[in-house]
Amino acid sequence: MFDDMVASQLRRLHVAWPQLVQPVQFAVEDVPPSDPAPWQADPDLCSQCFPAGRGTPARIVLYRMPIQMHARTRMDLQFAIRDELVSRLAELYGRRPEEIDPDWGLD
């Protein structure tokens, strides 16, 4: 179910912003790494983004278990997935999340 929700949000975002979504690789992992990189003073436990570099595309990784722990209902989970994807896309491209999705942060 989680992966289907992620795919649904990615399709929706791709329709609105194909130039932002298409070059990015997306992944879902169960939990974040237990040993954050030295430059991650306060790592986000729900998702991470990695900028493109040296032949590797930009990547966004969502962490299933932390996101699911915060969601009480299926709708909460859909909103949480949407917000994580939108905030990470905004971070990658130096935009405000509201520019990518005006409903970002609204439940």
UniProtKB/TrEMBL annotation:
UniProt cross-references to CDD domains, sorted A to Z: MMP_TTHA0227_like_1
Protein name as catalogued: Peptidase
InterPro entries: Zincin_1, Zincin_1_sf
UniProt source species: Bifidobacterium thermophilum RBL67
Gene3D superfamilies (alphabetical): 3.30.2010.20
One Pfam family linked to the record: Zincin_1
